[in-house]
Amino acid sequence: MADRYPPVPYEDVRYGGQDRNPAIQLFGRRFFADQTVAELLVELLLVAVSEKRIGGNSVSSIQGAFQTAVFPAISLLRNWPQGLALEYSAKARLNLKLFSFLGASRVDTRHKTHRDHKRELLQQLSKTERLSVSSGTDRNEVLRTLENLFLGFQGVGGNRTWCAQSFLPVTTELLAGESIWRETRARAKNVDSWMDALSCFSHSQQIFLARGGELLYLQICNVLRQEPVEIERWSKDAGLGLLPREYLPDQLRDVLGSALMSVLRSCPDAVGQLASFIDTGVDADTTAHTDTPDGELRFTACGWCSGESWPEGLLFAVELLRVCEATMDPIEKLELLEIACALQLLRSLCAQSARHAPLAGNEVKSLNPFGFVWALSDPEGQHAVVKQISRRCVNAVERLIHDAIRIPEIRSIVAAQKRDDEGHGRRWKDPYGEADSRYGHKLFVTVAKRIGLIVPKRGAGARFVLNDRLLRYLVIALVRPGERMTYETFKQLLFAHYGIAADDTMLGRACEWCGTKRLSTIGGATDSWMIEMLDAAGMLLKLSDSCSLVCNPFGDGGNKQ
Questions:
Q1: How many angstroms separate the first and last alpha carbons of the chain?
Q2: SS3 35
Q3: Which is nearest to 379 in space by CA: 526, 482, 507?
Q4: How far apart are CA 201 and CA 119, in angstroms?
Q5: One-letter-per-residue 3-state SS of 228-263
């Protein structure tokens, strides 16, 4: 079974704890099908910027709250207190969400107390002297403009209740935890005031911010606690060509933390100041009730990731760093960071599965460093042979993940659950249906289709492809900003980072991995479509018929040591 990081207590898997699910036992707590790609990034950044602590007040001050540092100190990561979880204090920002989203939410989700409080909030905002407007300007018109401004930062959840929606993470003041309105409880209590209604919001259910971003954050922490010699050895064996700042934990911690914060500072300061003013400027009681209900900060405990997952965590950290340091439009950068999170989820599922249940008859050492392959076909599907290889590869990935959560160690736990349930007269429910559909191989296909890595979205014949946005991300993530590398090196890094196979040689390996005979030739020019896409995107420099350079134009070209 996978080692846990942080070393939190192992939940009793017999009585319905989250760790009861076979997929969570292997992959960590948790990647979940209901969490959107955008919410993976929101939750990752939310943990990064929030005040954090370890194990509440039960440890010494050096291991207690460490404020808003993006990542804990290396010494703490390497000496994590046994049995204690990482906790973070996410702000609810109910007033800001109410102000921004209520008017655009479904009418049937607008409780009377919500409508009344928004009217009161608008009245107080229109009267406050802190809202300065020029003479002759209608204050109500200014407030309507501000409402439209913040509605424009709506990130995900437009069809949900207003409080369950999220902002684009363009600034720290727009990052908020998940809040769920419990309509049934409100009806039972017959609430008729906003302060009574506040007791009917849940801030701990994690239905949409479902711990996937937490797991990604913990994977980076898991990397930072590794010994530099071990990281350097692995990265050299994998042929990654990393700089010291990209693999030495003390340097990587600092530069990645600064890079993530730079993304959240790309929006004008006035937006964050306005957000804070709307949320707390005229109604501090709501914030006190949601964020400090007992006079102290409300903390949420993170789950855990597999201790074995640090190699893919290393690549994720490096890719995040390169995207954050690219010189480009802030909104486009956020879109690429969302792709980074989605691809890391997919890579994590495959890498952890390959560690525990490699496909029979295939040597992991002959593949990419993780032991899996994603065989690409051309987007139009014109190369019939490659198209068939790609389809077989999708099926092989699904089989890999399916088999991994059924290894004997997990099977024995499931069998013990069944015996225990039946022995105590409880109804037994086989957990594998949910494990496959919401945490396992169907999760892989679902997320891959969301970002366009697998087509078609519906119907048979699923295969791996790249769209323009994915290819753009891969260039930025694999080629440092402002630098260039040969096309052959780029393809090697695609294979090393993601097991992505596009040319004859790599597709031959994909055939072997899928359990079919390696073809001596696949027809040639299997990657011509990729060359054309890179050229059309302005990311390819052709030196000759046999040599081309892949360029990342989003930087100053300076080498960072």
A1: 38
A2: coil
A3: 526
A4: 19
A5: HHHHHHHHHHCCCCCCHHHHCHHHHHHHHHHHHHHH
Give whole-number Cα distances, 61 to 8, 46, 162, 388, 515, in Å. 19, 23, 38, 59, 55
Task: Report residue 238 as tokens.
Answer: 């994998």
The answer, yes or no, to whether the previous bond of 553 is cis (omega within 30 of 0) is no
Measure the CA angle with vertex 232, ends 228 and 233; round to 5°.
120
Question: CA-CA distances (angstroms) from residue 523 to 367, 386, 462, 511?
Answer: 22, 9, 21, 14
Q: Which of 246, 178, 254, 250 is nearest to 214 (CA)?
A: 178
Q: What is the pLDDT along the chain (561 residues), one digit of tens a residue?
A: 668 999 887 665 545 567 889 999 999 999 999 999 999 999 999 999 999 988 764 433 444 455 668 999 999 899 998 888 999 999 999 999 999 999 988 888 899 999 999 999 999 998 877 777 666 678 888 899 999 999 999 998 888 999 999 999 999 999 999 999 999 999 999 999 999 999 999 998 889 999 999 999 999 999 999 999 999 999 999 999 999 999 999 999 999 999 999 999 989 999 999 999 999 989 999 999 999 988 888 999 999 999 999 999 999 999 999 999 999 999 999 999 999 999 999 999 999 999 998 876 555 445 789 999 999 999 998 888 899 999 999 999 999 999 999 999 999 989 988 888 888 888 888 999 999 999 999 999 999 999 999 999 999 999 999 999 999 999 999 999 999 999 999 999 999 999 999 988 889 888 889 888 776 667 667 889 999 999 999 999 998 877 899 999 998 744 454
Q: Tell me the Cα Rg of the chain.
A: 25
Q: Residue 183: phi, psi to the nearest 5?
A: -60, -40
How much helix, strand and coil, in percent to the nearest 5, is found in the chain?
55, 10, 40
Please report the sign of the dihedral spanned by the C-alpha atoms of residue 433, residue 435, residue 441, residue 447: positive
Output the six-digit token pair for 137.
């300007």
CA dist 533 and 501 (Å) reads: 16
Partners of residue 540 on adjacent β-strands: 550
The CB density around residue 188, as the number of other CB atoms within 10 Å, is 10
Q: Which residues are within 8 A (CB) of 281 and not within 5 positions of it... i.e. 6 or more apart?
A: 125, 128, 130
Provide the strand spans (E) within 427-475.
454-455, 463-464
Question: Which of 382, 398, 531 is closest to 462 using CA atoms?
Answer: 398
Yes or no: say if 390 and 377 are a contact pair by the CB < 8 Å rule.
yes
Q: Are 153 and 268 in contact (CB under 8 A)?
A: no
Q: What H or E segment, with its residue span, contains residue 305?
A: strand 304-306
Say how far apart CA 437 and CA 256 lie, in whole Å.
Answer: 34
The 3-class SS string of 347-396 reads: HHHHHHHHHHCCCCCCCHHHCCCCCCCEEECCCCCCCHHHHHHHHHHHHH
Q: Do the beta carbons of residue 13 and residue 417 sit within 8 Å?
A: yes
